[in-house]
Amino acid sequence: MFELVVNSIPLAIVASIPLLLAVEGELLVQRGGIINLGIEGMMLTAAMTAALAAQLTNSVLIGFAGGIAGAASIAALFGLFAIILRADQIVTGTAINLLALGGTAFVYREVPAFRQPIPQLHTDPVLPLAWLAAPLVLGAILWNSSFGLRLRAGGEHPEALLATGRSVRQHRWAALMIEALLVGLGGAYLSLALSSGFAENMTAGRGYIALSIVIFGRWKMKGALLGTAIFGLAAALQYALQAANRGIPFHLLLAVPYVVTLLILCGVAGRVRSPEALGKP
C-alpha cells in the first residue's frame, strides 16, 4: 500500500494543477471579500473555449489564450452582478454555474469543430507556474505589497479602505481578473493537457473543491498548497487503486477524493475565521 501511495505522487502533482490554480485564484478574491461560487462555471467555460480555440487553430498557445478569454468573460459577468449591481454573491455564482453547465453542453453538441483532434502539449510550463511561481508571486502580492494590504483591508473592513480614498470595487475587480487568468489556465490545462479535448461537465466539481480547500487552508497560501496536495493525492490514489484491480467497487473509488474533502471540512468547521466582509457587497 505504501508503494502504491508513493507511486501516486507524480500523478497527483500533475493531475491537481487545474485545482491548484483555481484555489490560488479563489484565495485571492476571498481575501478581497468576494465568494466566487461561479469558479466552477469559469473553469468549465475555460476548458471549452481552450479546446475550441486549439482545434480551430491547431495551436496549443492560442488554446490557452482562449481558455483565459473564456474565464475572463465569466468573471466579467460575475463582477457585473456581484460588484457593480451588488447582487448576492452566492446566488450569482450559482446562476453562473448553471448557465455555464448548460451553455457549454449546448455548444459542445452543436459545434462540429469539437470532433477535430487536439494539438499536443510537448512541454509543460504550467506545472512549475502552478506549484512554484504562482504561490510565491501571489504570496508576495498579498502580504508584501501595498495592493495586497489594501485588498485585504477591503475583505476585512471596506469602510477603512474607503476612508483612505481608495476604491473597494477597483481592488475587487483586479483580484477577480487575476483569478480569471489563473482559472483560465487551469481550465485550459484540463482540456489540453490532462484530457484529449472537451467533455461535458469535465471539471467534475473542482471549483467547489477549490472553495473548500481555501477554507481548509485558512485563507493562507501554505494551507492552500497543503489542501490541494491532500486532495490531489487522494484523487491519484483512487486512479492507482482502479488500475491495481484490488476488488474495490469502482463507484466507491470515485468517491474517495470527495469523502476526503468532506472530512477536511468537518475537521476545520467552526475553527477558522473568515475575512469579516467576505460575501458582503
Question: What labels describe this entry?
Answer:
single chain, 281 residues, mainly alpha, 12 helices
Q: What's this, in brief?
A:
The chain has 12 helices and no strands. With about 280 residues, the protein is mainly α.
Straight-line N-to-C gap = 49 Å
Helix percent band: over 70%
Question: Over the alpha carbons, how many angstroms does the gyration radius reach?
Answer: 19 Å
Count of helical regions = 12
Mean pLDDT: 91
- Structural class by helix and strand composition: mainly alpha
How do the helices and strands follow one another from N- to C-terminus?
A: HHHHHHHHHHHH
Number of strands: 0
Shape category? globular
Q: What fraction of the residues are assigned to beta strands by DSSP? A: under 5%
Largest sheet: none
> Are there runs of 5+ residues with pLDDT below 50, and where?
none
What's the topology here?
Blueprint: H1 2-15, H2 17-31, H3 39-57, H4 60-84, H5 89-110, H6 126-143, H7 146-156, H8 158-163, H9 168-192, H10 206-216, H11 221-244, H12 250-268
Helix pairs in contact: 1-11, 2-6, 2-9, 2-10, 2-11, 3-4, 3-5, 3-9, 3-10, 4-5, 4-9, 6-7, 7-9, 10-11, 10-12, 11-12
Please provide a written account of the structure:
With 281 residues, the protein is mostly helical. It is 74% helix and 0% strand. It has twelve helices and no strands. α2 packs antiparallel against α9 and α3 runs antiparallel to α4. The chain starts with a helix and ends in a 13-residue tail after the last helix.
